[in-house]
Amino acid sequence: MTQIHVRAQPGDVAPSVLLPGDPNRARHIAETYLDGARAYTTHRGLLGYTGTYRGVPVSVQTTGMGCPSAAIVAEELARLGATTLIRVGTLGGATPTVAPADLVIATAAVPNDGTTRQLLDGAPYAPAASFDVVHAAVVAARALDVPHHVGLVMTEDAFYASTPAHARLWASRGVLGFEMEASAIFLVAALRGIRAGCLTACSNDIGDPQLVPEDVLAGGVDRMVRVALEATVTLHATDSAAAAVAG
What sequence ranges are listed for the domain Nucleoside phosphorylase (predicted)? Predict the structure, then answer.
């Protein structure tokens, strides 16, 4: 049956799904990087497309902004048969060592949001990316010679609440940057027994309210998407080899 928000049928969605927050970015990814992309949903502006990349089926599904929307989308994608969810978006850098447009590959997300708290009934928890996804992304970034950082991010609800002091405090605790969806995606994936990852391009330093120039950020987004797609190819090959051995 179709889902309430992601209006698609089983079979419409590929096993591997890239998750941008912005519907315009979803459309751009589908039209720029995928072969034979077709839209399977436009409901509520949560644009979704499926095509292929280097022969591997890939979907691109908008999540909207924030954990509540991302959790709904992740849950419904799992019900539709997705097995790997990779967020592709932007983050604010917590430290100047994360340069404008740099790629950040998250290993886990500090859950400073309300959605994971409700899903867990307040229990302490550490939402983490799947090792296979992190490893495939790091291998792809190295192969493509993409500047990148690997480590913690923080997921927050209030976009304008972050301050330079808040950023530097959490940077001293190992946080590379702040974004708004990863913790919920990681948690829903764990609850549903599927894989998840998060790749982001740095849009600004929290100490500097100005976003990086559009052309610079566009370059970072392009590199991020290419790394994510190459990671899906690696994961697909690994899964296919494992299935062949098991069969």
Answer: 17-210
- Among all chains, which residue has been given the structure tokens 């296979």? 132
Residue 214 has φ and ψ, to the nearest 5°, of -55, -40
For residue 155, the cross-strand partners are 111, 179
Q: Which amino acid is at 86?
A: I
What percent of the chain has pLDDT above 90? 87
Core vs surface per residue 32-63: b (16+ CB within 10 A) or e: ebbeebeebbeeeebbbbbbebeebbbbbbbb
Q: What is the pLDDT of residue 4?
A: 83
pTM: 0.96
> What is the rounded CA–CA span in Å between residue 192 and residue 30?
26
Question: What's the confidence (pLDDT) of residue 211?
Answer: 79
80, 8 Cβ separation under 8 angstroms: yes
Closest CA to 152 of 209, 192, 198: 198
Q: What is the pLDDT of residue 20?
A: 98
Euclidean distance between CA atoms 69 and 44, whole angstroms: 11
Nearest to 27 by CA among 15, 13, 12, 37: 37
Q: What is the C-alpha to C-alpha distance for residues 36 and 239, in angstroms, rounded to an integer?
A: 23
Beta strands 84-93; 195-205: pairing state: parallel
Give the span between the Cα atoms of 177 and 174, in whole angstroms: 9
Contact indicator for 155, 109 with CB cutoff of 8 Å:
yes
Single out the residue of 156, 150, 80, 58 nearest to residue 116, CA to CA.
156
